[in-house]
Amino acid sequence: MAAELFYDNDADLSLIQRRKVAVLGYGSQGHAHALSLRDSGVDVRVGLPEASTSRVKAEEQGLRVVTPAEAAAEADVIMILVPDPVQAKVYEESVKEHLKDGDALFFGHGFNIRFGFIKPPAGVDVCMVAPKGPGHLVRRQYEEGRGVPCIAAVEQDATGGAFALALSYAKAIGGTRAGVIKTTFTEETETDLFGEQAVLCGGASALVKAGFETLVEAGYQPEIAYFECLHELKLIVDLMYEGGLEKMRWSVSETAEWGDYVTGPRIVTDATKAEMKKVLGEIQDGTFAKNWMKEYEAGLPKYNEYKKADEDHLLETTGKKLRKLMSWVDDKE
Ligand code: NAD
Ligand code: MG
Ligand code: MG
Ligand code: MG
Ligand code: MG
Known about the structure:
globular, binds magnesium ion, alpha/beta
């Protein structure tokens, strides 16, 4: 099933230009969306609490800042770009009462809609425009006349024009310059959670740690183990990013390539894949979302415990020391 792609010519910018847009939040995504919407000729206001430290930044960058409730009251398109675990609270306190039939509620990730933490009224369009990159890249690409590919979805099409409006919004932040892929809230949310847990964040961290510990426990120096199991990973991932597994294998030695074929499947085994399927099941049935929200509302006790344990891990203390030797890496910390 190939994805459906949409470009600049498929999107009508005037749809979003005729609306009043509120961007709630001014973090990674919020700042990029608000500034690029403004530069695309859209009437945009940023919604931030009185106490928010981001207020000054948004105002310095020429945006009008009001409270989230004022922004929602003024606007007929409301993009929620506050952290996922606080979106339901912001929605209840500042957005819900200001929604009128024909308004549109926008998201950058489907979590709260997919798992029912936010339940918008029937008369409102519910859309998603999610750039496939961090906000700072989204903004930089826009300014350079390019764009970051986006995915777009409609959960509820009350007006009959929800997808066209989502494409118009995506055009205003540069997304249709690169290409917009149509998805659903369910597909985006479930694949995003699975990817970050099983492969990108969870899988990669666990793999690096286990490899590092194996070498150190066998008596090798932690500094050498750090280079072999963490530092060099970037070179490998860069090659995969540029040209898939094929380019990575073309670039490494034949010995490394042979080791890849014979050892990889001994590390990520059928049992690992069976566990991945269990993880996916717990994402799909809402278990993960329910437990995460419970942890967040309890004040993040386990989250902080896990964070602390890894901060004190020899992998991390070794890395801190070694990165100081590499000026080009250390600069970024
Ligand atoms: P962020 O943490 O960078 O920024 C959140 C912003 O919300 C901050 O400006 C913060 O001050 C503000 N905020 C916090 N509590 C608030 C409240 N109660 N009322 C109003 N504002 C409040 O968040 P982000 O990474 O930009 O994520 C926003 C959304 O975009 C999320 O749904 C996320 O899943 C999605 N998303 C993020 C990325 C990414 O690369 N960061 C990519 C795609 C989608
Ligand atoms: Mg309104
Ligand atoms: Mg993702
Ligand atoms: Mg995510
Ligand atoms: Mg080597």
